[in-house]
């Protein structure tokens, strides 16, 4: 593994905000410097010319200031995962002729000074680390060499059967925890009945595939579910209510809805400037220009990791838009966020009460600070600007429960 120091990672404003959190946590250390760190795995030694080219590509090469450092922490993508940045950066390096670069990853080095000569305790390290990283997507290291597992290749494990028939439903319940499947109780009951009917044990692969394919993110089970409200069965699901506008309009002006990757409505006749496929010469072509619209929900990924969750949500939208009909061209996007009360530090609103949240979920404030930037960043990278959006916070008490 090779290492290249990069440029400053955080702005002075971000460092100041982070230092405020450090002080509020009762820690005596001072954040002096943040710096990008680039980790490389190569198939062969890089020539001096290649190294120089790589430093230019990464805008790297600034050595850390040892006089500012008494204690360091390194935040890298979660060990055992492949980050989106790594995928993009490695591909770009190859396109630029650096074919010897097999993997290229980025982390951030945080350098601290400490009052007095006392070493930082393990408890203080853990408190400090919690302020620096997202445990769902990142890992914190105490030394640079500990980043080696970023490039470790773990051999695929053989598939195995889950002993449902021998030990009962507890086998699926244990697999649910061990594999992180997040199966609900009714899903576990369904799987138990299904495989008992098949008279065989499920495999871990089958359970994993079911968990993904049957997730709310993929199937919108709640969106399409039957609802009973105050004892009265409702005629329409949430999805039916959305599609009701199309039903009421009898499809007037709608060329495609709820059947392709995006909906298409009638547009107008316009002049489009593009090259003739036969001659390659640019010119105007007068033709009908239908308009497409697409909604991509990315609730769970954004709740887990706001920046990449919102970013990849925009990516899914762009992908689906481009796949409509024989092909289409995404032009612009909107983005919306509906979250719980923000509970801004030192600025609480009278109606806001902290009811807590699961440890794996980002706070509403974190979502609103990072999510819009993630969505905008991905859109900008594809030349498809995020033009507008909405933001709402909402909580209510229903039947005595929040």
The gross shape turns out to be globular
Question: How confident is the prediction overall: mean pLDDT?
Answer: 90
- Uncertain segments are none
CATH architect. name of the largest domain: 2-Layer Sandwich
CATH H-tier superfamily of the largest domain: Phosphoribosylformylglycinamidine synthase subunit PurS
The strand count comes to 12
Quickly count the helices: 13
Strand content: 15-25%
Can you walk me through this structure?
The protein has 402 residues and is of the alpha+beta class. The protein has four domains: 2-151, Mth169, Chain: A; 164-214, Helicase, Ruva Protein, domain 3 (Orthogonal Bundle), CATH 1.10.8; 253-292, no CATH class; 294-402, 2-Layer Sandwich (60s Ribosomal Protein L30, Chain: A), CATH 3.30.1330. It is built from 13 helices and twelve strands. It has helices at 12-24, 48-58, 84-95, 122-132, 164-167, 170-178, 185-198, 204-213, 216-219, 238-248, 299-304, 306-322, 364-381; strands spanning 2-8, 29-42, 71-77, 101-114, 138-141, 228-229, 232-233, 254-256, 263-275, 282-293, 333-339, 386-393. A five-stranded antiparallel beta sheet has the order 1-2-4-3-5. A three-stranded antiparallel beta sheet has the order 8-9-10, with no helix packed on it. Strands 6-7 form a two-stranded antiparallel ribbon. A hairpin with a 2-residue loop joins strand 6 and strand 7 (232-233). Helix 12 (306-322) crosses helix 13. The radius of gyration is 26 Å and the shape is globular. The two termini are 50 Å apart. The model has no long low-confidence stretch (mean pLDDT 90).
């Amino acid at each position: 593994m090779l290492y290249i120091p990069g440029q400053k990672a955080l702005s002075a404003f971000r460092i100041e905000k982070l230092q405020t959190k450090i002080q509020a946590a009762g820690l005596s250390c001072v954040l002096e410097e943040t710096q990008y760190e680039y980790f490389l795995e190569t198939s062969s030694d890089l020539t001096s010319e290649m190294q120089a080219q790589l430093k230019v590509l990464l805008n790297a090469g600034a050595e850390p200031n040892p006089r500012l450092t008494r204690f360091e922490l390194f935040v890298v993508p979660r060990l055992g995962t492949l980050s989106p940045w790594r995928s993009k950066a490695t591909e770009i390096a190859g396109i630029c002729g650096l074919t010897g670069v097999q993997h290229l990853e980025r982390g951030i080095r945080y350098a601290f000074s400490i009052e007095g000569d006392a070493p930082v305790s393990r408890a203080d390290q853990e408190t400090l680390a919690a302020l620096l990283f997202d445990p769902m997507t990142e890992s914190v290291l105490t030394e640079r060499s500990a980043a080696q597992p970023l490039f470790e290749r773990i051999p695929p494990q053989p598939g195995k059967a889950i002993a449902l028939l021998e030990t009962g439903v507890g086998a699926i319940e244990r697999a649910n925890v061990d594999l992180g499947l997040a199966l609900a109780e009714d899903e576990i009951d369904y799987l138990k009945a299904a495989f008992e009917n098949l008279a065989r044990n499920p495999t871990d692969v089958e359970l994993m595939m079911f968990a993904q394919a049957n997730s709310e993110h993929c199937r919108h089970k709640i969106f399409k579910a039957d609802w009973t409200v105050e004892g009265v069965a409702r005629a329409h699901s949430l999805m039916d209510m959305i599609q009701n506008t199309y039903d009421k309009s009898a499809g007037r002006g709608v060329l495609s809805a709820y059947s392709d990757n995006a909906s298409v409505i009638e547009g107008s006749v316009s002049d489009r400037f593009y090259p003739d496929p036969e001659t390659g010469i640019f010119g105007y072509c007068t033709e009908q220009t239908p308009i497409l619209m697409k909604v991509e929900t990315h609730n769970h990924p954004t709740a887990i990791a706001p920046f990449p969750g919102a970013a990849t949500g925009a990516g899914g939208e762009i992908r689906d838009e481009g796949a409509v009909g024989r092909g289409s061209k995404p032009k612009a996007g909107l983005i919306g966020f509906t979250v719980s009360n923000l509970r801004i530090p030192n600025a609480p609103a009278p109606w806001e009460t902290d009811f807590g949240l699961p440890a794996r979920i980002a706070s509403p404030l974190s979502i609103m600070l990072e999510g819009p930037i993630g969505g905008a960043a991905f859109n900008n990278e594809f030349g498809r600007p995020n033009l507008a959006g909405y933001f709402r916070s909402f909580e209510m008490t229903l039947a005595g429960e929040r």
